């Protein structure tokens, strides 16, 4: 940490002895008001990145910068859950779990600059099968019927004519997986004579180029991808594209997609895609390039562990030990380099947890008086488990010269805006900006088993064929595979014995801890998230569900390591689930697999009667769960509403009040919604365009990464 410089002209005393102004309806506060230069409210990816950029810029060298967060940790929706290795050796990414190295410039450069690049691994989860309408089928296409091959249905072996359960008549749509059908529909839409791009000469040439690319892809039997156009051409597409005379920004994405598909294809996408919110009625102008940049990424052929060439998506990457390594590294470097005025106390000065922002008062001087409620939670014994009890809130007041709200819109809506520097029109316009995006419920659950019972035969042999690839360095990495279902679980990622294990201090994967323990991550959103949330609320007096074996290990841990025991109890209190929840999860997992598994191979303690049907299914060791729709996050990700021109709105949101140093950034108001990269892009927009900071020179190979992604400058990238 830089030492205090008492001679600096802009050094402020840490507190002011004046009390808050007395006004009708105001909360009286007689404690001193703390004085700081910059308040960053929200310690997620955007807030942490902004904080580090500021402390590394010479113009802010002697500015006091403080991060406030409502939660019990920094990182926001990047949250890696870790129980002690003796209990659960996996790192469970309850929030952001991956990034795209070739396309997401800022996070790629940031990971390299922080020294985390050597700890990444390919996040390879090829799709293995589907379960929908009571049928199991693979990703293979039957040569005679053109349908996906059925594996099993209603207690009988596959028939002589494999069917998927969806009566798709179009030969062009039959045999496609849900994501491929959306890509097909987008290609049809982009090649439709009713699609046009208006605007200047570049826009007119773009539509010609676009239709040429669509025609070539169609002739080759391929769907169009993001790479078929340059980022500049996609920009013109988002701004000027019209379908049947109506701007795409005024049309819903799913309305356009289902118009290109027959009814059974539409139902197959809805049942099998796994994401309900992605196919919602969000802004088609933003949704089309967003979808093509992720789901329609080109596949590459790689050499699997058993020597065969397999076609997999290798674009995604993650960090050994979990994506929380990124905010942890940002936090550590920020604290190391941040400057504080005399009398401040290190980390406690720069990072304030449990601070809920309630009011922003804009003063005549241009400063901001921030009112926080400090809300702590204490771990208490309750029945057979532990619960978190909130302690009485305490009011804190801070005056800052500049404020960056790195918060989701749902949290910002809860903040009262007042003061002589604002009028009713300003506030009304600000609230309308917050309504330009929709927040989506999204959840993950992690079901940890003592053994990967769903695999037939040798685990190592089968895992090699399912999710192992050889990296350019010749190292074999195994992530696992995934399945999709119309059941409320929706999407399941099967982590193999070597995937996501706890990292050592050097980021190396440990293969000695519980080598046969395996984990299934289930992901769902929208109404399916609400289904599980209802079960989550039915917590009984026994606290979080754990198996008898795991409960015994926790008791042993209490005697061996009190600190780890307390941390385990806190994780279970925050993220554990009641027994009724576990019953439903176990039964649905079993329905996906019972056709493959010989029950006689199980040991008696592996089979228990569970669920409404009281069938014998394998019980897990523990289930961890997180729904991001709750406060203070108010949503797992966001999408631009129909009727919004995101390119214009993003600039208005970045500095919503002209002349006031109040800024907003985060994933919600970005061109990469749902990604860490969106948060970084949005933060960089605020820093460079509105706080007038130069590009970050300390990000390794930034210009090279921009060029590879086909952007000329950082400005063109963050303004895309």
Describe this structure in words.
About 30% of the residues lie in helices and about 20% in strands. By secondary structure, the chain is α+β, with helices and mostly antiparallel strands. The strands form 10 sheets. Strands 1, 2, 3, 16, 17, 18, 21, 22 and 34 form a 9-stranded mixed β-sheet that branches. The protein has an 8-stranded mixed β-sheet with strand order 9-8-7-27-28-29-24-32. The longest helix has 19 residues, at about 200-220. It starts with 14 loop residues before the first strand and ends with a helix.
Give the topology, please:
Blueprint lengths: L14 E2 L16 E9 L3 H11 L9 E4 L11 E2 L10 E2 L11 H9 L6 E3 L4 E6 L2 E7 L6 E6 L24 H13 L4 E3 L3 H19 L11 H10 E3 L2 E2 L5 H7 L3 H10 L11 H11 L5 E4 L5 E4 L4 E3 L5 H13 L8 H5 E2 L2 E8 L5 E7 L2 E6 L2 E6 L3 E12 L3 H5 L2 E3 L5 H11 L2 E4 L1 E8 L9 H9 E3 L5 E3 L1 E6 L5 E5 L22 E8 H11 L11 H13 L1 H14 L3 H15 L13 E4 L4 E4 L3 E6 L9 E4 L5 H9 L7 E3 L11 H15 L11 H7 L5 H5 L2
Parallel strand pairs: 2-3, 2-21, 3-16, 7-27, 17-22, 21-34
Antiparallel strand pairs: 1-2, 4-5, 6-15, 7-8, 8-9, 10-11, 11-12, 13-14, 17-18, 18-21, 19-20, 23-33, 24-29, 24-32, 25-26, 27-28, 28-29, 30-31
Helix pairs in contact: 1-9, 1-19, 3-6, 3-7, 4-5, 15-16
